[in-house]
Every structure is written in structure tokens, then in C-alpha cells.
# Entry
Amino acid sequence: MKQVRLNVNDMSLDISDFRFATGSIPNVFHRFATAGDCFSPDCSEDYRKGNFKVDISGTNFLLPNSIPYLFSIYPACVQRLYKELMSSDRRQWSGYCGGRCGNCWPEVFRLLVEGC
# Structure
């Protein structure tokens, strides 16, 4: 996605808005900042294949220090984000999740305005 809808009242992103979405498969889109896989129920970090990347470089927005995620994953031991990485300027965020055909998505994805 090159653009995403922003609710200016609470600075939250509408992760399910596909108006500006692009994809490699026609008419198949994934919600913003979500990931998942069906690779393995093993609890090891090495088995997480679903990944997400958020990049708001070139904007006056910042990502919050933490972004709460929800999970629909089996088994319980993989209900977390793996290899989370937030850039020092708080404009890029990435991570992995997945399990036995599971996924993860932001509970709420809010942006901050730089300088406020």
C-alpha cells in the first residue's frame, strides 16, 4: 500500500481500507501491517514466515513506541511477534508472526505527529 486512510480524530489508521491497495494477485489484498503463515506450529522463532513491514518515511508522522497486536494463531506458544524491529527514527516497523495457519494484526494502529 502506498496510502492508507487516517482518522484524524484519533490519529488511527484504517487497516482494512483497500482503496489504495496493490497486490501481486488481482483483487486479493491483506490488511495494513498484518502477517501470517501456515508453515509450522513449532514454537521456535525460526519457523515464523509471515512478515509485515511499515514504512512512513517522508511523512511528518512517527510510529508509537509500542504497537499492540492481536493473534489468531495455534499453538499458544507462538502468539507473539517475532524479530520486531523499530527504526531509531520511529518511521519503519517490521516483524514476523504465524503458526498453524495463523495471523496477527494491530489492535489499534495510531500515528503521532512529529514535534507534538
